[in-house]
């Protein structure tokens, strides 16, 4: 059935009259909506255009940790009522794990389809998170599938799975497949050029401040918008120093994702009683959300940012 994109995503900037086909029934594999996620205009436009007209391409979303790559995709797929399988890669994951494996069921050896085979056969979306952790040699096995060719499984008697017309292949990663030159993302690898050539690649950075304020305020409505705006300001300064922005003073060995920012706001609200002990709730919460993951010098620098932005009290 056809649905209004404006109605589905409930965003003011979407024009009236844009319609999209979505399935009538909600499959068990459809992800739950990410109710607190706010989509940037460019990301949503790029994703919806690709989703309707993939033209044989996969969809790759790259960007810094915690910038909403996976949550944005899951929210889109949920609202579009698309059954989805999401897996997180690691350095030891193999192509055969994605396809399937033999296992014993009730004393009988059986072949069980993996996430790739299931998604391809039934017309689901497949998301591989942290794809840049995969061994490039293993990834090469996916090239035929991305070309729209059938999946052949010799281990299951030569089974042939024709790609369903609704199958969609998506990957996310902190790098764009060209390797990590910053040293921030340990374990990532340069991916095969032939593999990356089969994707539309979209960069997902942290949200614009006004949108990020909306996200955090949705997560913790008890915190005043003005205070959330100051928290976002601090988060962006930490990010600038982490990324080595030329205009930022100093450097950080840690960054603040939107996920961590929302955690900080939530813990600040929950620890208001600390004031009675002479402890600033925002500082106390910040250490538990982020500061205790770094060294003393960095933690003190972050505290100084908070005191400068909020005032010494």
List keywords for this structure.
alpha/beta, Rossmann fold, 2 domains, five-stranded parallel sheet, two-stranded antiparallel sheet, 13 helices, globular
By DSSP, the count of extended strands is 11
General form? globular
Strand sequence of the main sheet, in spatial order? 4-7-10-3-11
End-to-end C-alpha gap: 56 Å
Instruction: Kindly report the average pLDDT value.
Output: 90
Number of H/I helices: 13
Domain module count: 2
Largest sheet: 5 strands, parallel
CATH topology of the largest domain: the name is Rossmann fold
Give the SSE order as H and E letters. Answer: EHEHEHEHEEHEHHEEEHEHHHHH
Tell me the radius of gyration: 22 Å
User: What's the name of the CATH homologous superfamily of the largest domain?
Assistant: P-loop containing nucleotide triphosphate hydrolases
Strand content: 15-25%
């Amino acid at each position: 059935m056809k649905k209004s994109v404006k109605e589905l995503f409930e965003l003011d900037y979407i024009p009236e009259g844009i319609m999209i086909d979505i399935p009538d029934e909600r499959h068990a594999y459809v992800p739950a909506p990410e109710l607190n996620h706010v989509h940037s205009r460019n990301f949503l436009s790029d994703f919806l255009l690709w989703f309707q007209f993939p033209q044989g391409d996969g969809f790759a979303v790259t960007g810094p940790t915690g910038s909403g790559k996976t949550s944005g995709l899951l929210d889109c797929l949920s609202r579009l009522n698309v059954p989805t399988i999401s897996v997180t890669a690691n350095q030891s994951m193999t192509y055969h794990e994605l396809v399937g494996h033999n296992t014993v069921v009730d004393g009988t050896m059986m072949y069980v389809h993996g996430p790739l085979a299931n998604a391809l056969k039934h017309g689901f979306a497949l998301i591989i998170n942290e794809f840049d952790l995969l061994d490039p040699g293993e990834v090469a096995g996916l090239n035929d599938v991305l070309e729209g060719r059938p999946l052949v499984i010799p281990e299951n008697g030569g089974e042939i799975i024709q790609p369903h017309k609704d199958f969609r292949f998506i990957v996310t990663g902190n790098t764009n497949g060209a390797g990590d030159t910053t040293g921030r993302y340990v374990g990532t690898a340069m991916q095969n050029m032939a593999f990356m050539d089969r994707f539309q690649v979209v960069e997902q950075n942290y949200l614009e401040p006004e949108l990020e304020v909306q996200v955090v305020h949705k997560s913790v409505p008890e915190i005043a918008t003005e205070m959330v705006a100051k928290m976002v300001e601090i988060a962006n300064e930490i990010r600038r120093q982490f990324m080595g922005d030329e205009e930022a003073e100093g450097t950080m060995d840690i960054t603040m994702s939107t996920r961590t920012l929302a955690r900080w706001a939530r813990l600040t609200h929950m620890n208001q009683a600390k004031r009675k002990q002479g402890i600033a709730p925002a500082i106390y919460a910040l250490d538990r959300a982020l500061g205790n993951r770094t060294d003393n010098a960095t933690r003190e620098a972050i505290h100084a940012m908070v005191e400068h932005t909020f005032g010494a009290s």
